[in-house]
Amino acid sequence: MIRFDQVRKRYPGSDEILRGVSFEIAEGELVLLTGQSGAGKSTLLKLMAAIERPTSGTVLIGNQNISKLRPAVIPYLRRKFGLVFQDHKLLYDRNCFENVALPLYINGVTGSDAAKRIRAALDKVGLLNKEKAMPITLSGGEQQRLAIARAVVSRPSILIADEPTGNLDESYAGEIMALFNAFQQVGVTVIVATHDVNTISQSPHRALHLSQGLLEVQITEFA
Ligand SMILES: Nc1ncnc2c1ncn2[C@@H]1O[C@H](COP(=O)(O)OP(=O)(O)OP(=O)(O)O)[C@@H](O)[C@H]1O
């Protein structure tokens, strides 16, 4: 469960970006986070993953209040999260296998155990036949799927994606959303920030809409 209670966020010298945001996301739910460019979607995702701290209010992940966590505990909390960004943040001097391997190697998982998990993650996103390819040789949609494989290889319970379909044409965007649906169906909590109107209109999931620092909760109708 993820709960925000009257969360406010101001960066040093900035206006107030979030002005008292409260919502709850159940375990295993898929939720869209919508709003115009600059509305604060990335800020809200960063607060969720404890990359940023609220100026005031409470952010609960499970039963942990992340505003009160000691810095030493934050790396453990982060292991719950898989993160996917619009610009992929792939390493272009490493092949696909090595890109997906990175989070495992950082956590000390290596050898045949790691290889099995890396290939399972590549398989889930349809890139098993590309493990030796360099990311630059992949299409935009494939690069985004590679970033998703890297995000899920550590089997996170929460998957956060920030504009994952932003640079992609409609068919690729549909593929990416289908992947997120598949992860939700196996119990992962998924939060996708997007201003892609197609993604929003075709989604049967709940959408949280940010506007002027405040949240409106929308229930999207089935298309
Ligand atoms: N580290 C920072 N320091 C100061 N201001 C920031 C910082 N990060 C974001 N902002 C400001 O916070 C506001 C919200 O930014 P944020 O990236 O959260 O919005 P967004 O809805 O994700 O936008 P986009 O869809 O364009 O990515 C913007 O005005 C931005 O300039």
From TrEMBL:
Main location group: membrane
Gene this protein is translated from: ftsE
Protein name: Cell division ATP-binding protein FtsE
Alphabetical keyword list: Amino-acid transport, ATP-binding, Cell cycle, Cell division, Cell membrane, Membrane, Nucleotide-binding, Translocase, Transport
Gene3D superfamilies given in the database record: P-loop containing nucleotide triphosphate hydrolases
Function in brief: Part of the ABC transporter FtsEX involved in cellular division. Important for assembly or stability of the septal ring.
Species, as recorded: Pseudomethylobacillus aquaticus
Location(s) in or outside the cell: Cell inner membrane; Cell membrane
PANTHER family: CELL DIVISION ATP-BINDING PROTEIN FTSE (PTHR24220:SF470), IMPORT ATP-BINDING PROTEIN (PTHR24220)
UniProt-recorded Gene Ontology molecular function terms: ATP binding; ATP hydrolysis activity; transmembrane transporter activity
Domain of life of the source: Bacteria
Lineage: Bacteria, Pseudomonadati, Pseudomonadota, Betaproteobacteria, Nitrosomonadales
GO BP terms in the entry: amino acid transport; cell division
Cellular-component GO terms for this entry: plasma membrane
